[in-house]
Amino acid sequence: MNNIKHHLKHWHIMAICLMICDALSIHLAYFAALWLRFDTQYSHIPGNVFHTYYSTITVYTIIAICLFWVFRMYRGMWRFASYTELVRTFAGSVTASLLYSAFVSVFFKRMPLSYHVWGGGAQFVLLLAPRFAYRLLLFYKTAAFKNAENTGRVMIVGAGSAGQMLLRDISTSSELHDRVVCIIDDNRNKWNRYIDGVPIVGGREDILSAVEKYKVTKIYFAIPTADAENKKEILNICKESGCELKQVPGLYQLALGQVSVSTMKDVAIEDLLGREMIRADLNEVFAFLNGKTVMVTGGGGSIGSELCRQIAAHNPERLIIFDIYENNAYAIQLELKKKYPDLKLETLIGSVRDSRRLMDVFSTYHPQIVYHAAAHKHVPLMEDSPCESIKNNAIGTYKTAYAAMLNGCERFVLISTDKAVNPTNIMGASKRLCEMIIQSFDAKIKAGRADEIPQLFTHVGENSVDPDGTGEVFQNIKTEFVAVRFGNVLGSNGSVIPIFKQQIAEGGPVTVTHPDIIRYFMTVSEAVSLVLLAGTYAHGGEIFVLDMGSPVKIDTLARNLIKLSGYRPDVDIKIVYSGLRPGEKLYEEKLMAEEGLRKTDNKLIHIGCPIPFDTDEFLQSIEGLMEAAYSNDKEIRSYVANIVSTYHPNNPPVMVVKDTKYAALVQ
User: Fold this and answer.
1) Rounded CA gap, 36 and 121, in Å?
2) Residues 96-133: pLDDT tens digits?
3) For the chain, which domains are there?
4) Catalytic site positions
5) What pTM was estimated for this model as a whole?
6) Helix count (H) and strand count (E) of the chain?
7) What is the distance between the alpha carbons of residues 303 and 296, in angstroms, rounded to a whole number?
8) Chain-centroid distance, C-alpha 234
9) H-helix or E-strand containing 153?
10) Residue 166's closest CA among 277, 101, 249, 61?
11) Is 404 exposed, middle or buried, given 0-12, 13-18 or 19+ CB atoms closer than 10 A?
């Protein structure tokens, strides 16, 4: 007996109980039909009629239960009983009743018509009763619990399909301690109507008043089809309420019917930027990367690691991660090996300053596409160490580009920045130098004069790539060089968002350099999409520029982040203005005025027409700049200003900060 109990699962026991209940229901249903047919008087039932009932009902019950098993009426989870279970029960009951009527009519005395009709109807009702009674009991039990004062009070924004799925998930779950108290929708035809007993109280302009009236503690945004501008406007209203704010992930979950509280995600700061995400044509990217050897310098960084993820997903022949910081490189290596076990992955440690290491890597693996993301990017730190910015960014780019050119690289994509436009800091000037380097390389190659590009030597005893002077090594060079110019990447290493979050977690203050400072922002995925597009569409010499919409005030960004964290700016979390640091400016341009723009197939991606400069003079000046940087010349900024005509060093006065511990690196 114990062995039998051990092998029986819970649903087996439930199925046996239901079978017993169904057997009693069938007997009762058809007896009640007879009883009603003969005026509820048992003594009035003719003996031959009762004999037919008595002789057939047990056999019918056994056959009916077997039929119900075929209709899977004993394998359902009745706590989630719904329309599907109702249809299945109806089909099983009707089928059994019709078979029973035919059997009795053919082999036994003809029974009254009402016996079959009332018996079949009563049978269906009695079959449903125990099944849906369980769910009904759970519903009232859950409702009673959710009416308690200690439950969360939820407002759902959106009365469409996603909102309805979310409402039913909350209403039927006994594990969620939440209760939906009102719904918001901009469609006036839905106002003052109800969904499952919950009122639709108005549009977006009624959100704040409804929060107060219904004592809302949580707001769930359930409009996955909303465009960026409307989403931004509604979320901006919601965050003013101080409620916990979450949103449905997207249309994919809606299409699969997977909208539930468990799939909700926090509203991120990028949701408040108010523009559509940039979408790359991944089919073209796939065709471009498929079967090729791809190298990413700085592959462990924010942009570099995301590039590696996207490239690994597009079936390259080999992916090479090149980085000087072994911890980041090791982390992305482990991630990619786990996700793509068949990927040919090389993780190499080295510096872009080391031309011998670069030549060894390029001559060994011959990457066909290079994404050059290795760079020093922190503006204030580079102002304190300007020569390091030139060594790593400008000279590092030069050496990497030179090695790529000599070893059959097809495309070289430089990651640039909007700080390269009219730079006031050495980091931005160094990135403008990088752009000029790849433009010079591209111009020389297109002119068939790659041999005129100087080889830079920083190691004693380094050998020339063309020792006999024949120039044969420079024949048939086809490398195309392009640059991609970004704004600030949300959440990247050293960006302002993680710093603000840390300051908020510590209770403040949150420091902003200036109340009027503005920046352009984009997400990591957008940045990588643009880089991949540049590599796909490039013909050489272009500077790709993203139309990032309207710039965002850093002060507004900080206040929004404080509100999304559930605090009040200047009340719960103080905001302190630290003042502009040397090299920082109030705003960043996306493009120099002289460059102009050309359109691409993507309306949000443009190509800047390069500013003409004397390529020969520029290349001749690079060696002197390198020598000045490696000798740590304190006049390095003057050298750079002589080469980059748009560079105007700016050293504004610094405001006094009460607690410099919280100074944010606004970039």
Assistant:
1) 13
2) 888 888 888 777 767 888 888 888 888 888 887 777 66
3) 2-143 (no CATH), 149-267 (3.40.50.720), 282-460+469-490+521-549+589-649 (3.40.50.720)
4) 419
5) 0.65
6) 22, 22
7) 10
8) 20
9) strand 152-157
10) 249
11) buried
